[in-house]
Automatic annotation (TrEMBL):
This is F-box domain-containing protein. It comes from Mortierella hygrophila. InterPro entries: LRR_dom_sf. GO terms for cellular component: SCF ubiquitin ligase complex. GO terms for biological process: SCF-dependent proteasomal ubiquitin-dependent protein catabolic process.
Length: 564
């Protein structure tokens, strides 16, 4: 057994299941374990912008250079000429994020260009709000990256010439392009430009390029699978979009995310023109009865749908989707009533994401809703045994008293969800606020006991989840927040719009962008595992022979890594 625990194959399997703090502990077991686990801490590194008082937390240059060859994903938040050699030694880079905000000269792009030059393994580059116009040099350098297939830019400024170079770059080998609030200067779209390899295209709130030319961009992507389009400015040429969808220009396009100004009848036209829809996202649109009629022919292929903040979407519509779409894996909507839920069983037994506010209205007119009504809903949810994301309260429910939301308590039937063993995210927003403290604590106790895979619990931090208070006013059990942390569950505070909450220092926040559609990145030759985002920023230096110095170095490095 002892020999097995030093085999690289066994240690590799162990390492895949450990977090960074566990890996640090494992590195201290023996030399073999340190040799195996230390490179894992360096797979992703962020060179952070630190305050002067915190600069001592930064790994020294010698340590960086020693481990540069382990780094696969690099985030650059600070530019320092002394680090140029370190960046050049990161020869195994797959992914680079350039996120430098505080710069005092325009040479920033030239220095970044020198960093990524000759990095032949680069497959993903992210540029996030760098406050200087992009230059020819960096565009030409990115164009020389032979394996670059993902490019994400945000709030990037491009002049006329640079826009042309940017588009030429995108037309080479890119399979995914995300342009967010970028400023273009595009007088004419090059007639010969075809984005042959493009599979996933996101054009969000771009300026300097008309809506019509954005559609022209879409029409030049013959192998596109997914199109994400967001803009509140400009008129959508629905006829042109429908022609692109129905004319065979993008025959493989099966995923549409549209956050643009379109009416119910226009959405219906788009859905009628699309040959096949698997993923549909239309939040904050006028989706209504006409759109619903056009959507029905896509029910057999529909896998993901997002109808959040759509005021014309009714509970019977949501129920019809759940009971008709056998292949559905994800659904988001505003409300679903118990009276509709009990009408028909759901066909989508493989659902993985359920994000709908549930209303349990007592049709008899009694003041108190029978507990049996809540249990009926929980029993139906308990049948979705593949769920890993569950939210049962919408933001509108959390911000208004006009509805009768589901009650979250063991008495109401929460224990019917013990079957959801794959759950990693659960949100009840403000629903625990109406509970007595002891009831809220029992909910938390039940959660940590039955949902062993849960990573995030979202709720408000009012009395319902804080602690169990005795008759004498003293705490009789540990704080619920501590109980969650002890079981490795992150608490995410939900702050309802329109309500004023104190900002507690002990609250961990959930990143709302964390729920990403990984299938949007899938393609031949593209492995999502290569682009894992790690939660640490570098390893500990155990080079010192002095035990006290090692302990101090570990403490300081843990702070830098965000683990303390």
């Amino acid at each position: 057994m002892d020999k097995a625990l030093v085999l690289p194959e066994i240690l590799a399997c162990i390492g895949n299941m450990l977090n960074n703090s566990n890996i640090i502990s494992c590195m201290q077991v023996c030399n073999a374990w340190r040799t195996e686990f230390e490179p894992r801490l360096w797979r992703s590194f962020t060179f952070k912008q630190l305050e002067p008082d915190d600069m001592g937390l930064q790994p020294n240059l010698a340590l960086l250079q020693k481990n540069a060859h382990h780094i696969r994903s690099l985030v650059i938040e600070q530019m320092d000429s002394a680090l140029q050699d370190f960046f050049m030694q990161c020869k195994q880079l797959d992914e680079v994020k350039f996120d430098v905000r505080e710069v005092d000269d325009g040479d920033i792009w030239d220095r970044f260009s020198d960093m990524i030059d000759n990095h032949g393994r680069l497959r993903k580059i992210v540029i996030d709000s760098v406050p200087w116009p992009m230059t020819n040099k960096v565009l030409e350098t990115m164009g020389k990256c032979p394996k670059l297939i993902v490019l994400e830019t945000k709030e990037t400024e491009l002049d006329v010439l640079d826009t042309q170079l940017y588009l030429r770059l995108c037309s080479k080998n890119l399979r995914r392009l995300s342009t967010w609030a970028d400023d273009y200067d595009l007088p004419e779209f090059p007639e010969d430009l075809i984005f042959q390899e493009m599979r996933y295209l996101d054009i969000c709130h771009a300026t300097g390029i008309s809506m019509d030319k954005q559609l022209t961009w879409l029409s030049r992507c013959p192998n596109l699978i997914s199109f994400r389009w967001e803009s509140w400015i400009g008129q959508v040429d629905v006829a042109k979009l429908c022609t692109i969808l129905s004319g065979g220009t993008c025959p493989n396009l099966t995923a549409l995310h549209l956050l643009v100004t379109v009416a119910d009848n226009e959405i219906a036209q788009i859905l009628e023109a699309a040959p096949m829809i698997e993923k549909l996202s239309l939040p904050r649109t006028e989706f209504g009865e006409l759109s619903m009629n056009a959507l029905r022919r896509h029910f057999p292929t529909l896998r993901d749908i997002n109808l959040q903040f759509c005021s014309k979407v009714t509970s019977p519509m949501v129920q019809e989707i759940l009971r008709s779409c056998a292949n559905l894996q994800s659904i988001s909507a505003e409300s679903l009533a118990r009276s509709d839920i009990i009408q028909h069983p759901w066909a989508c037994r493989s659902l993985q994401m359920f994000d709908i506010g549930i209303d349990v209205v007592d049709e008899t007119g009694d003041d108190d809703t029978p507990m049996s009504h809540f249990k009926e809903v929980y029993q139906r949810l308990g049948q979705l045994t593949d769920l890993n994301y569950l939210s049962i309260c919408s933001e509108n429910q959390a911000d208004t008293d006009s509805r009768d939301p589901i009650k979250v308590s063991l008495e109401a039937g929460l224990d019917e969800l013990a079957t959801l063993r794959k759950l990693t995210f659960f949100s009840c927003k403000t629903l625990l606020d109406s509970n007595e403290p002891s009831e809220g604590f029992k909910v938390v106790e039940w959660i940590v006991e039955h949902w062993k895979r849960l990573e995030t619990f979202e709720a408000s931090t009012l009395a319902g989840v804080r602690e169990d208070i005795g008759d004498d006013g003293n705490t009789t059990k540990p704080d619920a927040m501590d109980l969650l942390r002890d079981h490795g569950i992150t608490f995410s505070e939900f702050i309802s719009p329109g309500l004023d909450y104190d900002d507690g220092d002990d609250v961990d926040y959930y990143d709302g962008d964390g729920w990403m559609e990984q299938s949007d990145y899938e393609d031949d030759g593209y492995d999502m595992d290569d682009f894992v985002t790690y939660d640490h920023y570098g390893p500990i230096d155990f080079s010192s022979d002095d035990e006290n110095a090692d302990q101090y170095a570990q403490y300081m490095q843990l702070q830098y890594m965000g683990l303390e």
